[in-house]
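Hi support team,

I submitted a single chain yesterday and got back a structure, but I'm not sure I'm reading the token output correctly. Could someone confirm the output below corresponds to the sequence I sent? I've pasted both exactly as they appear in my results page.

Thanks,
R.
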Amino acid sequence: MEYGTPCFFAVCKLISVCKDLGVASGSRAARFAVKLPANAGAISFLEKILATVETATTTTSRTVKPAEHPPLLAGDRGPIAMSRPGLHDTVLSILKPLPRGTIFDCPAGEGALAQRLLAEGFTVRCCDLYSELFRLDGVEIKRGDLAGTLPYSSNSFDYITSLDGLEHIDSPPQAFREYKRLLKPGGHLIISVPNIMNIEERLKWLLFGYTSHFKPLSTESKAKIHYDCAGMDEIAVHANPIGYSELRYYLEENGFAIQGVYRDRKKANQWMYWPIVAFIRLLARLTPEKRRKDRWTEELVSDPVLLGGNTLIIHSIRL
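Hi R., thanks for writing in. Yes, this is the structure output for that exact sequence:
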């Protein structure tokens, strides 16, 4: 069988699907595939087998997860949001007025945001480091690492939503390079991270040396995370604290212009911090104008940042 022939590619596809189903490369099925003659009849036969196998792989609903699925995420149900309440509502409020197009959602989690985007009339493509978590039927899901090169062509998407992903990876700059590569010029990017710069988190850092989202982890804590997530520790572990200043720097370095900064929702206890907030803002007003501009002072004491909720959301456009 020669490389590059239709039969060659059909056999490669069949072997790939067999691997996904757990068929070993040395099994009778795999050996049978590579011994087929390279003629039209063999190609037709292979295509029929492939169609049958691919149908078998998709007949089981993604809402049903096996026993080895992470205990915290197991069960027979539809997708639920793995993010804080209010985040998806804010993202949808940004996207609703915009023209419909193709959205790339990564990390996609269980598919809760994708489900709502579909209902709004968008075409959705999804990707996640752990694609087996995905629970939404009828939507493309691919495995990909946000800290690496994602399995899509350049200039493929009108929109990218990347919620609560950057803090889980060890190379945020690479993610921003991928955002730029994958988005069409003029495309919209919406990202979110835990807000480590709101007044509550600033005080926790001052008093305790860590924030709510980036706590020290004891051996026992790590063991529990490892069990609850069935070894997929990245689901729960926050590895990279990243604030407004870093996000803006990476966006501008990769040719993005910020259109808006948002919070997921207001915190009920913010009133307790008003005296400190007022003092911080007074210091900001007393800072020379050029220094305020150079250091993004106005943005850093804005409501979404200083009085933000648990999540900081930034909407930008690729120039």
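A quick pointer for reading it: The chain has 13 helices and seven strands. Let us know if anything else looks off.

Best,
Support desk
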